Every structure is written in C-alpha cells, then in structure tokens.
Amino acid sequence: MKGLYCRAGLSDAEPKFVIQEASLPDVIGTHQVRIQVKACGLSPLDLKLLSDVGIQRDLIPVGREVTGFVMQVGPKVSSFHPEDQVVGILPLDSPFSGLCDVIDVDEHYLVQKPEKLSSVCAVGALRDGLCAYTALHTHARMAAGHTLLVMDGASPFGLMCIQLACYHGVKVLTTSHSPQKHTFLQQLRPSIARVIPVDNGSSDLLPVVMEETGGLGVDIVIDSGVRLQEEEESEEAKLLPHKHDIISVLGVGGHWVTSHQDLQLDPPDCRLLFLKSASVSFLNPEVWTASSAQQGRYLHILKDVVEKMSAGVLRPEPEEAVPRYEATVAMETVQLHQKKKAVVQL
C-alpha cells in the first residue's frame, strides 16, 4: 500500500511531498486497532514543532485526521469492535500516513463516528473543532454571558469558535477580511452580535468593540495571527490585528488565546495586561497527543466535537474531497497557505 510522506528540505529548502510504499506489522499491538481508512484530512505540517519534540525522520508521515472502519482489534482493546466506524487524529510520532489503505492506531486516539456524520466532514473539521474546544473551554473557561471576539471569523477555525460560543450563550463579535466574508458572517445563524470589517485598512476595532461592550472590553479574544510590528508590509499581514489592539480590547480579567508561536510582548504591553489582570494563553492543540496526562479529557472533547457536528450544532464549511492521486499537489497547496486544508477520499 502507498502513503504520503514529507521529505524535509535542507536549510531553507521547501519540503517535498512524495508517495511511498508502506507496510503493516504482522502482529497487531495489544491496545491497537487496525482500521481501513475511508477519508484523510490534510493540514499544514509544522516541521519546527516536530524537531522541537525530537521527531526527526527522513520521511515524515502526512495526513493525521482519519476516519474508517475497524478491521481488527488487539487482545486488550475494550472500546471498539470490528465493523465500528471510528474517527481520530494520529499522534505526532505515528509511523503511518493517513493516506495508507490500512493503518494501526492506539485505541486511545479514536472515538466512535456517528453514522449521520459523513467521513469527509468528520476529517475536514475535526482539528478545527479540537482547536476551538481547547481555546474556549480549556484556556478561556468560556461561560454563558461572556463576550468573545474572534479574529477572522470566516476561517474554518474561526467558524467553529463562533458556533461553539453561540451554542453556550456567549455574545460573539468577529472580524471579516473581505466583503464576501463579511456577508457570509452576517448571514450566520445563530446571528453574530457584530461583524467588523478590517479589509479596508481601517483601525475601527477598538471603538467598535467598546461600543458593543459599553466601554468594558471583551472577556475573550481568539486570534488567527498577530502583527508584532506596525509597519508589516505584506497584504496578509495588514489584515492581522496588532498585538496592542488585542490587549486594548480586553476587559478586566480578560483572556487572550493566541496561535502566534513567536509572540513578543514589550514592557508596555505587559504593563497593560497587568493593569487589566488579563492573561495570555498559547494555543497548541498538539499537546493532547504529545502527552497522555489528560487522555480521557481529550477523548471526551473529540467525542463531543463529532456528536455536535452530527447534530448540526457545529456546521463547518464543506470541504470538497480530492482523489488520492491528487494528494501530493493538494498537500503542497495546504503547506504553502498554512490556513487552508484538504480532504482525500480513499
């Protein structure tokens, strides 16, 4: 069988994605489940993170969000039986590519997939759902009555945050990066309290947020990237909020959840956070599979994500599945754009 792998480039060279032969071990592990993969999600590969946690291989497996049918279970597996439909995210050190026809996965990385939920939808939105739960519940301790500001709400991750927050009775504000996305966000149901356009280069974020919160600021801010310098030149960077803008819109006791890995806070930024008794958390969803300390909580989150998608509470934008022979090109596009994703149907 064949799988998709990444051959990391030397120095600053771009990583290369290649199709390689793979094989299964003759004997299945005691706590492992052998599944026939039906669909696989492709997300950007963080090579620096892999290096930081000590995972260094010539060929790195690609495609970690998987769904399929259980073919065989190990002697000590208690959660699954043959023919069960399952969905999960392979751990960082998994030797298998999700594009292989058959893979072995530890049972503690899988949950049952509801029959009503399509395989393509499940793998296309599972990681964003996990990120949204981690940001809102684990880090920000979201509660009914809170006010939330989601940056770039039309992104797959932003959309999941908005829908999850609305479900829990949170007032949601968000920003839009284009007129089309602005219209899309305004038409969402349940409705968003305010959509703030940032595509025209204006800096209306602070006055609009203060108007909507009676001058108090928001309880939670979730970003999708931050500008550290005012004079960022690229068009994409101009759409991102400056770190000072985010700190300014936070209310007393507010919480900022950032996905910016290299965030730098200057003494004035820290002083402002101190005056507000506000806090900052870094969103790294890989910690769930990198450590087994909270495995039960992780599985509970995955189960809740797929159940809410099946019930229509979480409604991700549909991903168009591509065949396996287009996986290499699709992954190159995903890696280049970072926020884009793809689904491969096997």
Short account of what is shown:
The longest helix is centred in the middle third of the chain and has 21 residues. The protein is α/β, with parallel strands linked by helices and 346 residues long.
Give an account of the 3D structure.
- By secondary structure, this protein is α/β, with parallel strands linked by helices.
- The protein has helices spanning about 45-50, 120-140, 155-165, 180-185, 205-210, 235-240, 245-250, 265-275, 285-290, 295-310, 325-335; strands at about 1-5, 15-20, 30-40, 60, 65-75, 85-90, 100-105, 110, 145-150, 170-175, 195, 220, 250-260, 280, 320, 340-345.
- Strand 10 (about 170-175), helix 4 (about 180-185) and strand 11 form a beta-alpha-beta unit.
- Helix 2 (about 120-140) packs across helix 3, helix 2 (about 120-140) crosses helix 10 and helix 5 packs parallel to helix 7.
- The mean pLDDT is about 85.
Which features characterize this protein?
alpha/beta; 11 helices; 32% helix; 25% strand; 346 residues; six-stranded parallel sheet
